[in-house]
Amino acid sequence: MPQIVLPVIPKLTLTAVIDILAVAVLLYQFILMLRGRRAMHVFGGLLALVILYLIAVALHLNLLRSSLAALAPYTAIALIVMFQAEIRGLLTRVGRIRWLGLGGQLERREVVDEIVLAVQQMIEDKTGALIVVEREIGLRTFIESGVALDAVVSRDLLCSIFHHGGQLHDGAVIIQGDRIAAAACFLPLHTHPVTIRKIGTRHRAAIGVTEGTDALAVVLSEERGHISIAWREDLEQDVNIDRLRERLIQHATGQPARPDQAPEPEWRRAQP
Asked: What is the pLDDT of residues 92-123, one digit of tens each?
């Protein structure tokens, strides 16, 4: 009776699993970048040529196989030229991964620096602004009320959004991580009678968005050019740039505020 020889299946080791996962992650990130781009059609064409080559090998179409094989040495150079923007984007994605938390800390510091630079510029120009920085509790409801941007946080973009006469000047900018999620967002207004007579609409909106969330709101007064910070339903008014930077870093890194930095809100102290 003839013996059936089964193929030897190589043993799946931990190294092999890591190897497979690494390749899968790289391919997934590459496909994410290609999705919705013209390069996706180029990639589809290259994939079709590979399938055609495999068919030629299987059906012994020697002329077609030889023609496609002659193009193979130039494929690597062609890929680099055609996908240079996508390859650069892939390397950027890899660089943004938070290796052991270091990348995340550097990223958050960069965001803080851009916000502070924008605030300095808008103070000089006497430009009003309302910037909300999300933390753990999502602000999706408020983001959907505005104009979606999904743009990298930068001083120039923030100043352009709040420029006098701009289409996005009214409303708030909401920042998620290192991205400006949306602009011209509508926020709930703080309605307690103790404080509404003393502050303007932007300040009321800044307090309102912090009610029930852990977001931090930065308000720039258009008339006086003063900076205010709203957090946990409290409004700290007339702060300087150093204080703003300190609060933003504490908020971005998750450090809790000291007791003297988070006083009880004025409207609560006024209650009997």
From this structure: 656 655 554 444 555 678 889 999 999 999 99
Q: Answer for the pair 48, 40: CB distance below 8 angstroms, yes or no.
A: no
Sequence-distant (6+) residues with CB within 8 A of 189 are 201, 204, 205, 208
Whether the model clears a pTM of 0.70, i.e. scores above it, the answer is no
- State whether 209 and 249 are in the same domain: yes
**Res. 81 pLDDT band, cuts 50 70 90:** confident
Angle at 134 between CA 247 and CA 30, to 5 degrees: 120
Q: How far apart (Å, rounded) are the C-alpha atoms in residues 119 and 201?
A: 19
pLDDT, tens only, 241-254: 999 999 998 888 77
177 and 76 together in one domain: no
Which residue, chain included where needed, has tokens 């390749």?
23
Bridge-based pairing of strands 227-231 and 234-239 is antiparallel
Domain that holds residue 220: 102-255
Contact 30, 90 (CB under 8 A): yes
Contact by Cβ (8 Å): 221, 229: no
199 vs 202: CA distance, rounded Å: 8
